[in-house]
């Protein structure tokens, strides 16, 4: 386990681990705060008197309405004869993406035309 003594690679904000730069968890009921990445520890008393602020930002109503319009839009793409595992009806559209390394196959995403359930298949 690390300690607060000695040289550190990172300096600055005390909410970050001085050894690896990872965000330190909020102090809890224990007497020390341990970095989840490198196990550096710091006494919880180092956080005494610190004020932690957080802000919640809500999306503007216009952006959520645009998402609703997109959901209502007609599904586009090639249709195949594949049975949906949720509603058991035939007819799904698909598109492919390269989600893994280039030497591995593509990932195929299927969307049901009837219930809009989405499935994926790694090829």
Question: Would you give an account of this structure?
Answer:
The chain is mainly β and 123 residues long. The protein has 1 helix and 6 strands; from the N terminus they run E-E-H-E-E-E-E. The protein has one helix at 61-72, and strands spanning 32-34, 41-43, 79-83, 90-97, 107-112, 118-122. The strands form 2 sheets. A 4-stranded antiparallel beta sheet has the order 3-4-5-6, with no helix packed on it. Strands 1-2 form a two-stranded antiparallel sheet. The longest helix has 12 residues, at 61-72.
What's the average pLDDT? 82
Describe the strand arrangement of the main beta sheet, using strand numbers: 3-4-5-6
Quick one: overall form? elongated
Give a quick account of the main beta sheet: strands, pairing sense, barrel closure.
Answer: 4 strands, antiparallel
Round the Cα radius of gyration to an integer and report it.
Answer: 25 Å
Helix content: under 10%
Order of helices and strands: EEHEEEE
Beta-sheet strand percentage?
Answer: 15-25%
Number of helical segments? 1
**Total number of β-strand segments?**
6
Whole-Å distance between the termini? 44 Å
Q: Which runs of at least 5 residues are low in confidence (pLDDT < 50)?
A: none
The overall number of domains is 2
Please identify the structural class as seen in this structure.
mainly beta
Features:
123 residues; mainly beta; N-terminal domain of TfIIb; 4-stranded antiparallel beta sheet; two-stranded antiparallel ribbon; 1 helix; 10% helix; elongated; DNA-directed RNA polymerase; DNA-directed RNA polymerase subunit
